[in-house]
Amino acid sequence: MISIAIHGGAGTLLKGAMTAEKEEEYKAALQLALAKGYAVLEKGGTSVDAVEQAVICLEDSHLFNAGKGSVFTATGKHEMDASIMEGESLQAGAVSLVSGIKNPVALAKDVMQKSNHVFLAGDGAMEFAKSLKYSLEPDSYFYDELRYNQWQEIKDSDSFQLDHSDKKDSKFGTVGAVACDVNGNLAAATSTGGMTNKKFGRIGDSPMIGAGNYANNKTCAVSCTGSGEFFIRGVAAYDVSALMEFKNLSLNDAAAEVVQKRLMEIKGDGGLIAVDANGNIAMPFNTEGMYRACKNSESLEEISIYKD
Questions:
Q1: What is the number of structural domains in the chain?
Q2: Contact 172, 227 (CB under 8 A)
Q3: Which of 73, 174, 190, 192 is catalytic?
Q4: pTM of the complete model beyond 0.90
Q5: Residue 250's domain is classified under what CATH number?
């Protein structure tokens, strides 16, 4: 069974705080990304290409904190992170602290396929991008009024903010996709613009293999979103896989154990999307909401924001 799931961030998405028009805009963006990714699978394409295409679509939307919609750092710049992994041979690629790159997930895929490394950061990652003739977008491409206003509210303070939240210390805003292709191969991709007003080159879980992103055909593919520090400390994405491999838990049970119990025990908030080699899908979260969508070849299709 082919299947795909995507997310656009988790957080305090209070139902009353979003207009009907805005909600429709988010759902339409999720629908488009879901369709782009699923089309790859439907044509017999690989799960790696499917998750890349879905995430590129989300990066190209100003609505999500990744690519075009990336938030502002303390210095008014945009620093983006992304990772991708495939479950057949456990190949992976990741980039962090890159600027001007329209689609960081594509660069992460190039790290996986065109370098002998897994994780490139900062100036080195930019040098690698230039060696592959990536064109850089001007700062104006990444400018979004909502993101700019979010930054202005806490600029010059020690506060930082994560995207879809009213809490000033919250840490949300990531996009991701997981997929199972016609050959039963799994892949996961995650991309983020990080935290508003972040300092010191802070890196969250999104580009870290095993923390915010993981794929293994024996178990599952996972993409996380939420308070990155907690997902790093809990090695959350790999933990789902480990629970399946070593405790023989189902995808649903393993994902729920990580999100509803293990992360909560260390006060971590957020969610994840996951898929296994049979095409089963799990999308748990412990926040008010999570932008999410999924589709499989057995006529399942869901696009949601809040808890049901």
A1: 1
A2: yes
A3: 174
A4: yes
A5: 3.60.20.30
Residue type for position 93: G
DSSP symbols for 272-284:
EEEEETT--EE--
Six-digit token pair at 104? 């960081």
- State pLDDT tens for residues 182-228: 999 999 999 998 777 667 788 999 999 999 999 999 999 999 999 89
174 is catalytic: yes
Give the C-alpha separation, 154 to 271, whole Å.
Answer: 26
Query: How far apart (Å, rounded) are the C-alpha atoms in residues 69 and 175?
Result: 11
| Helical segments of the chain, H only | 20-42, 47-59, 104-114, 122-131, 145-154, 228-233, 236-247, 251-256, 263-265
Q: List 276's β-bridge partners, or say none.
A: 220
Within 8 A by CB and 6+ apart from 266, the residues are 230, 233, 234
Question: Per the structure block, which two tokens stand in for 174?
Answer: 């990531």
Mean pLDDT for the chain? Answer: 90
- Six token digits for residue 13: 């998405």
Q: Is the pLDDT confidence value at 27 over 70?
A: yes
Q: Which domain holds residue 246?
A: 3-306
- Taking the C-alpha atoms of residue 35 and residue 29, their distance in angstroms, rounded to an integer, is 10
pLDDT digit string (tens) for 178-194? Answer: 999 999 999 999 999 87
Residues 174, 58 contacting (CB under 8 angstroms): no
Cα 244 → chain centroid:
21
Q: Can you tell me the distance from the alpha carbon of 269 to that of 41, in angstroms, rounded to the nearest whole number?
A: 31
List CB contacts of 180: < 8 A, sequence separation 6 or more: 1, 2, 3, 4, 47, 186, 221, 275, 276, 277, 278, 279
Q: Which of 30, 3, 5, 10 is nearest to 189 (CA)?
A: 5
159 confidence band (pLDDT: 50, 70, 90): low
**DSSP state at residue 141:** G
